[in-house]
What does this fold into?
Amino acid sequence: MNPNTEQNNKLELLGQMTGAILHDLKSPLAYIVSNNNHLEKKLRKLDDEKLQNQLLEVIDENKVGLKQIKEILNNIGSLLKNDQDMKPCFLGAIVETSLNIIKPQANQKDVKLDYNFSTQDDCIMGVASQISQVIINILINAIEAYSEGSAERLIKVNLSQNNDKLSLSIKDNAAGISPEKISKIFDWYETSKETGTGQGLAISKEIVTRHNAQISCTSTLGEGTEFQIDFQVDSK
Ligand SMILES: Nc1ncnc2c1ncn2[C@@H]1O[C@H](COP(=O)(O)OP(=O)(O)OP(=O)(O)O)[C@@H](O)[C@H]1O
Ligand SMILES: [Mg+2]
It folds into this structure.
């Protein structure tokens, strides 16, 4: 057998097995989440305050772990989608949906979102849910980068067009990234956060590359960070 065909068959099998494992993990995960929430409700009625606080702390730790497992499963799931799912879609609308999803989180941290759309043709070939995942990953990172003291928190999102190139820029005025760290942010498992998995940007880069697009990041420590993604307009 041709070594490439053999390699492709193995990869396909690996993809199918991973998909099956992800599927099977979803229901036990759902009942652990549900039981944890149920326990929390019961504990809140406990009379012994000291014991209550100790156990609620355990419940909170469980929640952090469960959230991470959920994120890892979602990320792997999204990587398993293949190119056949690519369809013409409108980038402006995907950005808008992503901003709406993230709005409650931004409000909670007092971060304003400003969206500027200035393109004639925003049709691209892609998987809308994956592109939205990239935008959301970048926005969440930006929101998380604001420290306690930061005032006038503003994330500017800009979609512009230059001939057949569509550029999406997401710019925050948060903590910024040091020159030593910036070269590593797209690496797998690279994180500066206590509860981070360091997968957000690695997976985003993978998705962007699949879409024949390019992602880049510039940052100044203490001033802020800008991510830019350049897509190709689908003019067919
Ligand atoms: N807008 C930003 N401002 C400052 N630092 C950032 C920004 N975006 C990313 N980073 C840095 O890049 C690192 C990698 O980001 P990535 O999204 O891959 O992982 P994470 O956010 O740490 O974890 P996860 O996304 O899995 O929760 C972050 O830990 C952070 O240090
Ligand atoms: Mg992240």
Q: What stands out?
A: The radius of gyration is 21 Å.
